[in-house]
Amino acid sequence: MINLPVKDDPVGEALHFLRMSGSFYCRSELTAPWAMELPAFKDCLMFHAVTAGECLLEVDGNHSCLLKPGDLALVPHGAGHVLASAPGVPAIRLFDMPRRSISNSYETISHGEGGASTSMICALVHFDHPAAQQLIRLLPKLIHIDSWKSSEMEWIQSTLRFIAAEAQQLNAGGETVITRLADILVIQTIRAWIARDPAAQTGWLGALRDKQIGRAIAMIHREPGRSWTVADLASAVAMSRSAFSARFTQLVGEPVMQYAMHWKMQTALTQLRESRVPVAVLASQLGYDSEAAFSRAFKRVLGISPGAARKNTVSHAPMLEA
Fold first, then answer.
1. What are the transmembrane regions (predicted)?
2. Using the 8-state DSSP alphabet, how is residue 312 labeled?
3. Residue 55: closest CA among 64, 68, 72
4. In 10 A of CB 63, how many CB atoms?
5. Which CATH number fits domain 203-311: 3.30.70.360, 1.10.10.60, 3.90.1300.10, 3.90.780.10?
């Protein structure tokens, strides 16, 4: 069966799926005046951490923040944005910047006119799992974590100091250390937003926190191959079928059986992308008596056959190419 370890925290279980299936990292050393225009990257999250100096970040012309040493910013929906030393500096396209490749997933940029310096680590990441994608869709256009405003954020300072030291020396394997630490920073930043932002108390995340609906969602997540019914789930959380169905739809935004089917098929899609398990075996794991029945359901929900989904699977690692 395809399932999760049983926990009592549905939100924690959702965070379990925040695994990056493709990542690209860049260390930038910039001197004022400078400005860099980053294009939109479909289905990607962009991350910026300043280790020295400061910079302005502006998304869509109306979401902006000043990043200082130790600050983190996420642009969750891959929107185009500008990083700059000061307002009004003409921006250069990212692809026109002088870049040096360190590995297939790590580059460095050095640029500027010799003024005040800024050092930063940037990342472009993709999340493949449906729970991760669901969570990313709920995030705002811009998340800014000011680590100096809270003693709880001390971990950011220590991690960024480690990243800065590795970036300056770049010893053998240093890029691997930097990318792994950046992965942790991305996930921890999302966790910090969930803990601190009122918007995280509503919608799907709010449903996960609901004692009964959250438990039902966790059951669906743990056992995607089970043939769930409204009666099964309602009974498990001690609610009547009608009350359970109404509350689930109200909190989650779709009927429970539709949610369960979508989860099942997104789980199947992830398995097709990440493993070579035969379609017939996957069909059996997900509760289907035949490969044909599974294939029909898969195409009905996702609009593509399992075979085509696997054939069309390509690396989701975002590459910085013009």
1. none
2. T
3. 68
4. 15
5. 1.10.10.60
DSSP 78: -
Residue type present at position 13: E
- 20-200 CATH: 2.60.120.280
Q: What Cα–Cα distance (Å) separates residue 37 from each residue in 105, 144, 155, 164? A: 20, 19, 30, 23
Q: Does the predicted model carry a pTM greater than 0.70?
A: yes
Question: Which spans in 118-255 are helix H?
Answer: 130-138, 154-169, 174-196, 203-209, 211-222, 230-236, 241-252
Instruction: List the end-to-end C-alpha distance of the chain, in Å, as a whole number.
Output: 42
Burial class (CB in 10 A: 0-12, 13-18, 19+), 76: buried
100 residue type, one letter: R
Write out pLDDT tens, residues 280-302.
999 999 999 999 999 999 999 99
